[in-house]
């Protein structure tokens, strides 16, 4: 049945027929309905649609994968629209429940989903109590083949990797538990092999986010490096992406791909301020005078060494910056220790902590080691979302290390308060230099994605531009405006990385628009884009 929209027709003769006086004249224009076009696929063949990618393709949200989120993944939304114009069935590797989490032979390896706790994200179990994770990769995997091959955590080269879904490789760190659920009787098959084995007529590929995101979420500390831009398939992004597209299109399949957003614009990196230390906090405010007294001694050393910009001072009237370790700074550990040891007043300072004067060399060395690459955070630094839960807490590992070197337990605790007396480690902060590395890699990856897509005649979604809009004023869709703000922005879920169901609906619309532009379909013109307001922004803790 055709969709109809209203237009106004002005016909003067109709206004005056049978009008005996002016009161009889109807000045309101009659409403006449104009038909919109029927939905057409254009030249696209949606009969067998397969989606490849990472957590964004899987439907991951609120820090987990669960049935409700999978059912509202953007590929599943697309498949329902494709079905109107010849699309076939679309099978997903559904989890067992709406709790989220994964188990391996009864042992939990991924936790349940996040929920809104009134002030921010909290774990599901903190609200409803302990739960049993029932999706077990050793005991109850679903049967494929699966049209949705989105694998949370996958990087570009992982889609090519044999054994990435082999259960035996999980303890070795060589396999992905989520992909283990998909491989069935072919545990060493790659994601790409499972995709082409279904002879797709149409595919979507959104990959590359984790090639930069892993580096970003670990604060650029090097434990999860950026994927090299250049290199052979399985090594470099260009080789891996080129191999994916060449193989997927070799049989004549059509498709849509997406570039990757600049991940530092997502709420995982923009929610925690650089100055979260509140002087009215009873756990912090009363300590400011003592802290400033201690740092006052260190600040004199910084000034003597010619780096007064590293000085640390907490405000009694305004929010203060956290103290961070910046590995881009020259390490002045030895120099700091040397200045303290050369000071005749330093032993008295040491005695103020209840330590003997003989402990001065020990304390000088500890201060040098702790504050050799330290500064206050600035507005240009980005703190990762999990840092909110550790700022102001005592680092027990630091306490143990200081006690082992001779400090009393209480004093060791005073020098181990995260972000205050103990500089935040690199993994909690993205410095401007690390942000620049991410931006450079993202731009290079997107250049490769665009060139490869254009050469293959594929549709291209500009997810990077979309996120930029979300982060700078928002995007209005229907009656709703979505932004990149955590919780209130509607686009991003409680983990600060993955979209809400409403965010995935917005993405599905962008994919359909890109398909329209390349293949001559008319999802948008025919009124077949989805109404984002029909999709939720959060899930109740009661949903199980």
Question: Can you walk through the features of this model?
Answer:
The structure is a single chain. With 544 residues, this protein is an alpha/beta fold. It has helices at 12-16, 55-58, 67-71, 74-82, 125-128, 177-183, 191-196, 209-217, 237-249, 267-270, 288-304, 333-342, 346-351, 360-371, 396-404, 409-414, 432-456, 463-471, 501-519; strands spanning 4-8, 31-35, 49-53, 102-104, 107-110, 114-116, 121-123, 148-150, 202-206, 254-258, 323-325, 374-376, 382-383, 429-430, 459-461, 475-477, 480-482.
Radius of gyration: 29 Å
- Shape, please? elongated
Strand order of the largest sheet: 8-3-9-10-15
The helix content, as a percent range, equals 25-40%
pLDDT < 50 runs, ≥5 residues: 1-26
The number of strands is 17
The largest pleated sheet is described as:
5 strands, parallel
Please give a handful of descriptors for the protein shown:
alpha/beta; 544 residues
